[in-house]
TrEMBL record:
This is Probable enoyl-CoA hydratase echA8. InterPro entries: ClpP/crotonase-like_dom_sf, Enoyl-CoA_hydra/iso, Enoyl-CoA_hydra_C. It comes from Gordonia amarae NBRC 15530. Could possibly oxidize fatty acids using specific components. The lineage of its organism: Bacteria, Bacillati, Actinomycetota, Actinomycetes, Mycobacteriales. The keyword Lipid metabolism applies.
Amino acid sequence: TTYETIIVETEGRVGVITLNRPKALNALNTQLMNEVVSAAKAFDADPEIGAIVLTGSEKAFAAGADIKEMSSKSYSEVVSEAFFGAWDDLSRVRTPIIAAVTGYALGGGCELAMLADTIIAGENARFGQPEINLGVIPGIGGSQRLTRAVGKAKAMDLVLTGRQMKADEAERAGLVSRVVPTEEALTVAKEAATTIASKSLISVYLAKEAVNRAFDTTLTEGVRAERGLFYSLFATDDQTEGMAAFIEKRDPEFKHR
Ligand code: HXC
């Protein structure tokens, strides 16, 4: 497949997707959305890929939905084409996605980072939901995922004022897992992805599913779901191998099944 708005590479068991519309600060137009979703689904279908890194440029992870593409759309157009609905497909990718965010992650850019499973930020990262400045509101899950990530007070502050939040504030608020020097963000994200990709893929899938359950169910139901997933792993070759390797004081050789 040839892509025009992203660069797709593999490094060992890690798939890397780089947003590549530098002249528009990686603004998310329909083509870019379709390409990112297509590339992520292809990695997800590839058993040789154990983790995905999603990144942009040093200046911008993504400066939002493409305002130029969006500005002339009518109500009936956005409804009938389910405008930006394809982004929802990313949340159905089972392979872990790590966003390496440097520079601007605004509007749809912040929402895209939050569609990833975890965010590693460079010190120069700026997060925000500035849609209010354009007379609209977040439309790719920002009002929901930001609120779950940072709580009501800060989510309201960001969504209502449209202000930008620096990386250290984002880390204190729990939006990002780590802040590292800007030039190291991609490397650190790739290292984390390589670590994840060295585990049993099946336990990685179920671990991700278990953590995600925390966001859409009660504690009792979530713990019950976790227990069922945990029990199910005792039916896998990789549980046998992982525990045998510990006892035999050697590294496990996972078969991913
Ligand atoms: C289209 C964009 C863009 C965007 C930047 N550009 N952001 N084009 N959509 N979201 C373009 C500019 O028009 C410009 O192109 C080029 O990228 C460089 O941007 P500058 O503004 O010149 O750079 P700078 O002065 O460094 O300012 C950076 C910036 C600013 C602070 C990030 O670009 C900015 O405020 N961008 C918009 C941020 C925003 O509002 N995002 C939310 C979008 S709404 P030209 O051709 O003029 O040189 C959204 C809704 C999500 O995301 C929900 C949808 C369903």
